[in-house]
UniProtKB/TrEMBL annotation:
Domain GST C-terminal, first and last residues per copy: 107-233
Domain GST N-terminal residues, every copy: 24-102
Name this polypeptide is given: Glutathione S-transferase omega
Record-linked InterPro entries: Glutathione-S-Trfase_C-like, Glutathione-S-Trfase_C_sf, Glutathione_S-Trfase, Glutathione_S-Trfase_N, GST_C, GST_omega, GST_Omega/HSP26, Thioredoxin-like_sf
Species whose genome carries this gene: Caenorhabditis auriculariae
Superkingdom of source: Eukaryota
Record keywords, A-Z: Oxidoreductase, Transferase
PANTHER family (UniProt xref): GLUTATHIONE S-TRANSFERASE OMEGA-RELATED, PTHR43968
Amino acid sequence: MTITGVNSNVLKKGDPEPSAPAAGTYRLYNMRFCPWAERALIYLSAKGVPTEVVNIHLMEKPEWYFKKHYQGKVPALEHDGRIVIESGVIPEYLDDLLPENRFLLSDPYEKAQQKLLLERLSVVVPAFYGLFSLIKDASAKEEKLGNLKKALDEAEQLLQHEFFSGSKAGYVDFLIFPFFERIWWVSDIAGFAFPSPDHPKVAKWFKATSELPEIARVIQPLEKGHLFIKSYADGKPDYDV
Ligand SMILES: N[C@@H](CCC(=O)N[C@@H](CS)C(=O)NCC(=O)O)C(=O)O
Protein backbone atom coordinates (compact mmCIF):
# COMPACT_ATOMS: atom_id res chain seq x y z
CA MET A 1 0.00 0.00 0.00
CA THR A 2 1.65 3.22 -1.11
CA ILE A 3 -1.00 5.50 0.39
CA THR A 4 -1.04 5.87 4.15
CA GLY A 5 -3.10 7.97 6.55
CA VAL A 6 -6.32 8.25 4.50
CA ASN A 7 -8.26 7.80 7.74
CA SER A 8 -5.69 9.47 10.00
CA ASN A 9 -6.55 11.94 12.77
CA VAL A 10 -7.95 15.25 11.61
CA LEU A 11 -5.50 18.05 12.48
CA LYS A 12 -6.99 21.22 13.96
CA LYS A 13 -6.04 24.58 15.45
CA GLY A 14 -3.31 24.09 18.04
CA ASP A 15 -2.01 20.82 16.56
CA PRO A 16 1.67 21.04 15.60
CA GLU A 17 2.77 21.15 11.98
CA PRO A 18 4.03 17.73 10.86
CA SER A 19 7.70 17.62 9.85
CA ALA A 20 8.42 17.81 6.12
CA PRO A 21 7.65 14.68 4.11
CA ALA A 22 10.66 12.39 3.48
CA ALA A 23 12.53 13.06 0.23
CA GLY A 24 10.82 11.50 -2.77
CA THR A 25 7.51 11.04 -0.96
CA TYR A 26 4.28 12.96 -1.40
CA ARG A 27 1.98 14.44 1.19
CA LEU A 28 -1.62 15.32 0.43
CA TYR A 29 -3.48 17.74 2.69
CA ASN A 30 -6.97 16.39 2.49
CA MET A 31 -10.48 16.32 3.90
CA ARG A 32 -11.98 12.85 3.50
CA PHE A 33 -15.32 14.07 2.17
CA CYS A 34 -14.09 16.85 -0.12
CA PRO A 35 -14.67 15.97 -3.80
CA TRP A 36 -11.89 18.32 -4.95
CA ALA A 37 -9.34 16.74 -2.63
CA GLU A 38 -10.50 13.28 -3.69
CA ARG A 39 -9.46 14.08 -7.25
CA ALA A 40 -5.84 14.45 -6.08
CA LEU A 41 -6.11 11.42 -3.80
CA ILE A 42 -7.32 9.19 -6.64
CA TYR A 43 -4.60 10.50 -8.94
CA LEU A 44 -1.87 9.76 -6.38
CA SER A 45 -3.34 6.32 -5.79
CA ALA A 46 -3.38 5.63 -9.54
CA LYS A 47 0.22 6.85 -9.88
CA GLY A 48 1.25 4.41 -7.16
CA VAL A 49 3.71 6.87 -5.58
CA PRO A 50 4.42 6.79 -1.82
CA THR A 51 1.89 9.18 -0.33
CA GLU A 52 1.01 10.25 3.17
CA VAL A 53 -2.41 11.81 3.70
CA VAL A 54 -2.83 14.54 6.32
CA ASN A 55 -6.46 15.39 7.10
CA ILE A 56 -7.30 18.99 7.95
CA HIS A 57 -10.23 20.23 10.06
CA LEU A 58 -11.70 22.87 7.75
CA MET A 59 -13.75 24.63 10.45
CA GLU A 60 -10.79 24.88 12.86
CA LYS A 61 -7.78 25.00 10.59
CA PRO A 62 -4.32 24.72 12.12
CA GLU A 63 -2.58 28.14 11.90
CA TRP A 64 0.36 26.67 9.96
CA TYR A 65 -1.94 25.33 7.23
CA PHE A 66 -2.13 28.78 5.61
CA LYS A 67 1.57 28.38 4.73
CA LYS A 68 0.56 25.41 2.57
CA HIS A 69 -2.51 26.96 0.93
CA TYR A 70 -3.01 30.73 0.97
CA GLN A 71 -6.79 30.27 1.34
CA GLY A 72 -6.53 27.32 3.71
CA LYS A 73 -8.38 25.03 1.29
CA VAL A 74 -7.77 21.39 0.45
CA PRO A 75 -6.26 19.80 -1.54
CA ALA A 76 -2.60 20.84 -1.31
CA LEU A 77 0.24 18.58 -2.40
CA GLU A 78 3.67 18.82 -0.76
CA HIS A 79 6.82 17.06 -1.87
CA ASP A 80 10.54 17.82 -2.02
CA GLY A 81 9.98 21.24 -0.44
CA ARG A 82 7.35 22.26 -3.01
CA ILE A 83 3.63 22.85 -2.69
CA VAL A 84 1.06 22.64 -5.46
CA ILE A 85 -2.61 23.48 -4.87
CA GLU A 86 -5.89 23.22 -6.84
CA SER A 87 -7.57 19.99 -7.87
CA GLY A 88 -7.41 20.93 -11.55
CA VAL A 89 -3.66 21.64 -11.38
CA ILE A 90 -2.34 18.81 -9.17
CA PRO A 91 -3.25 15.98 -11.62
CA GLU A 92 -1.62 17.71 -14.57
CA TYR A 93 1.44 18.49 -12.44
CA LEU A 94 1.70 14.83 -11.44
CA ASP A 95 1.43 13.74 -15.07
CA ASP A 96 4.23 16.14 -16.07
CA LEU A 97 6.37 15.06 -13.14
CA LEU A 98 5.75 11.32 -13.57
CA PRO A 99 5.27 10.98 -17.35
CA GLU A 100 5.91 7.22 -17.47
CA ASN A 101 2.40 6.65 -16.16
CA ARG A 102 0.38 9.50 -17.71
CA PHE A 103 -3.39 9.77 -17.54
CA LEU A 104 -3.83 13.12 -19.27
CA LEU A 105 -2.56 12.26 -22.74
CA SER A 106 0.49 14.19 -23.95
CA ASP A 107 -0.67 14.61 -27.56
CA PRO A 108 -1.82 18.26 -27.64
CA TYR A 109 -5.08 17.52 -29.45
CA GLU A 110 -5.97 14.51 -27.27
CA LYS A 111 -5.08 16.51 -24.18
CA ALA A 112 -7.31 19.39 -25.26
CA GLN A 113 -10.17 16.96 -25.98
CA GLN A 114 -9.90 15.37 -22.52
CA LYS A 115 -9.95 18.76 -20.84
CA LEU A 116 -12.95 19.86 -22.90
CA LEU A 117 -14.80 16.68 -22.02
CA LEU A 118 -14.16 17.31 -18.32
CA GLU A 119 -15.38 20.88 -18.78
CA ARG A 120 -18.64 19.68 -20.34
CA LEU A 121 -19.14 16.99 -17.73
CA SER A 122 -18.71 19.57 -15.01
CA VAL A 123 -22.46 20.31 -15.35
CA VAL A 124 -22.80 17.62 -12.69
CA VAL A 125 -20.96 19.79 -10.14
CA PRO A 126 -23.62 22.52 -9.62
CA ALA A 127 -26.34 19.87 -10.02
CA PHE A 128 -24.75 17.98 -7.12
CA TYR A 129 -24.33 21.02 -4.86
CA GLY A 130 -27.94 21.97 -5.57
CA LEU A 131 -29.08 18.70 -3.98
CA PHE A 132 -28.01 19.68 -0.47
CA SER A 133 -31.03 21.86 0.14
CA LEU A 134 -33.29 18.82 -0.52
CA ILE A 135 -32.00 17.04 2.56
CA LYS A 136 -33.72 19.49 4.90
CA ASP A 137 -36.40 20.97 2.67
CA ALA A 138 -38.12 18.96 -0.06
CA SER A 139 -40.01 21.96 -1.50
CA ALA A 140 -37.63 22.48 -4.43
CA LYS A 141 -37.30 18.75 -5.12
CA GLU A 142 -38.74 18.85 -8.63
CA GLU A 143 -36.48 21.70 -9.74
CA LYS A 144 -33.30 20.24 -8.20
CA LEU A 145 -33.94 16.76 -9.55
CA GLY A 146 -34.76 18.31 -12.94
CA ASN A 147 -31.32 19.98 -12.92
CA LEU A 148 -29.69 16.71 -11.95
CA LYS A 149 -31.54 14.83 -14.70
CA LYS A 150 -30.34 17.35 -17.31
CA ALA A 151 -26.74 16.97 -16.11
CA LEU A 152 -26.97 13.17 -16.14
CA ASP A 153 -28.59 13.21 -19.62
CA GLU A 154 -25.56 15.19 -20.79
CA ALA A 155 -23.15 12.74 -19.12
CA GLU A 156 -25.00 9.78 -20.68
CA GLN A 157 -24.60 11.33 -24.09
CA LEU A 158 -20.91 12.19 -23.53
CA LEU A 159 -20.03 8.66 -22.44
CA GLN A 160 -18.89 7.16 -25.74
CA HIS A 161 -16.67 4.35 -24.44
CA GLU A 162 -16.53 2.18 -21.34
CA PHE A 163 -14.88 5.11 -19.55
CA PHE A 164 -15.01 8.84 -20.25
CA SER A 165 -11.28 8.73 -21.02
CA GLY A 166 -11.68 5.79 -23.45
CA SER A 167 -11.36 2.03 -23.07
CA LYS A 168 -9.33 2.57 -19.88
CA ALA A 169 -10.12 4.87 -16.98
CA GLY A 170 -8.02 8.04 -16.94
CA TYR A 171 -7.91 11.77 -16.33
CA VAL A 172 -11.58 12.56 -16.99
CA ASP A 173 -12.87 9.61 -14.95
CA PHE A 174 -10.59 10.33 -12.00
CA LEU A 175 -11.54 14.01 -11.84
CA ILE A 176 -15.29 13.63 -12.25
CA PHE A 177 -15.87 10.45 -10.23
CA PRO A 178 -15.93 12.19 -6.79
CA PHE A 179 -19.01 14.20 -7.82
CA PHE A 180 -20.95 11.16 -9.03
CA GLU A 181 -19.98 9.38 -5.80
CA ARG A 182 -21.47 12.22 -3.77
CA ILE A 183 -24.66 12.23 -5.86
CA TRP A 184 -24.90 8.55 -4.86
CA TRP A 185 -24.43 9.41 -1.17
CA VAL A 186 -27.14 12.10 -1.32
CA SER A 187 -29.55 9.94 -3.34
CA ASP A 188 -30.36 7.63 -0.41
CA ILE A 189 -30.90 10.54 1.97
CA ALA A 190 -32.84 12.84 -0.36
CA GLY A 191 -34.95 10.01 -1.82
CA PHE A 192 -34.11 9.61 -5.49
CA ALA A 193 -32.48 6.83 -7.50
CA PHE A 194 -28.82 6.98 -8.47
CA PRO A 195 -27.43 5.10 -10.31
CA SER A 196 -30.62 4.65 -12.26
CA PRO A 197 -31.82 2.71 -15.34
CA ASP A 198 -32.68 6.12 -16.89
CA HIS A 199 -28.93 6.55 -17.46
CA PRO A 200 -27.71 3.00 -18.16
CA LYS A 201 -24.26 3.90 -19.52
CA VAL A 202 -23.54 6.18 -16.56
CA ALA A 203 -24.80 3.48 -14.15
CA LYS A 204 -22.44 0.89 -15.66
CA TRP A 205 -19.54 3.38 -15.67
CA PHE A 206 -20.17 4.35 -12.06
CA LYS A 207 -20.05 0.74 -10.87
CA ALA A 208 -16.95 -0.12 -12.91
CA THR A 209 -15.14 3.04 -11.83
CA SER A 210 -15.94 2.70 -8.15
CA GLU A 211 -14.55 -0.86 -8.26
CA LEU A 212 -11.19 0.11 -9.80
CA PRO A 213 -8.54 -0.76 -7.18
CA GLU A 214 -6.93 2.70 -7.39
CA ILE A 215 -10.29 4.23 -6.45
CA ALA A 216 -11.75 1.55 -4.16
CA ARG A 217 -8.72 1.69 -1.83
CA VAL A 218 -9.01 5.42 -1.10
CA ILE A 219 -12.72 6.27 -1.06
CA GLN A 220 -14.94 6.40 2.02
CA PRO A 221 -17.62 3.78 2.77
CA LEU A 222 -21.21 4.73 1.93
CA GLU A 223 -22.27 4.88 5.61
CA LYS A 224 -19.57 7.47 6.36
CA GLY A 225 -20.60 9.45 3.30
CA HIS A 226 -24.19 9.49 4.61
CA LEU A 227 -23.11 10.64 8.06
CA PHE A 228 -20.92 13.41 6.70
CA ILE A 229 -23.53 14.64 4.20
CA LYS A 230 -26.16 14.81 6.97
CA SER A 231 -23.82 16.72 9.28
CA TYR A 232 -22.91 19.11 6.44
CA ALA A 233 -26.57 19.69 5.60
CA ASP A 234 -27.17 20.50 9.29
CA GLY A 235 -24.50 23.20 9.04
CA LYS A 236 -22.16 21.31 11.41
CA PRO A 237 -19.81 19.29 9.21
CA ASP A 238 -18.37 16.41 11.22
CA TYR A 239 -14.87 15.68 9.91
CA ASP A 240 -14.41 12.79 12.35
CA VAL A 241 -17.25 10.47 11.24
N1 LIG B 1 -10.89 25.25 -6.44
C1 LIG B 1 -10.47 24.40 -5.36
C2 LIG B 1 -11.66 24.11 -4.47
C3 LIG B 1 -11.27 23.37 -3.21
C4 LIG B 1 -12.33 23.50 -2.12
O1 LIG B 1 -13.29 24.26 -2.26
N2 LIG B 1 -12.13 22.77 -1.02
C5 LIG B 1 -13.02 22.94 0.11
C6 LIG B 1 -13.43 21.62 0.75
S1 LIG B 1 -14.40 20.62 -0.33
C7 LIG B 1 -12.27 23.70 1.20
O2 LIG B 1 -11.09 23.53 1.37
N3 LIG B 1 -13.00 24.52 1.97
C8 LIG B 1 -12.44 25.21 3.09
C9 LIG B 1 -12.54 26.69 2.95
O3 LIG B 1 -13.06 27.16 1.92
O4 LIG B 1 -12.11 27.37 3.84
C10 LIG B 1 -9.87 23.11 -5.94
O5 LIG B 1 -10.38 22.68 -6.99
O6 LIG B 1 -8.91 22.58 -5.37
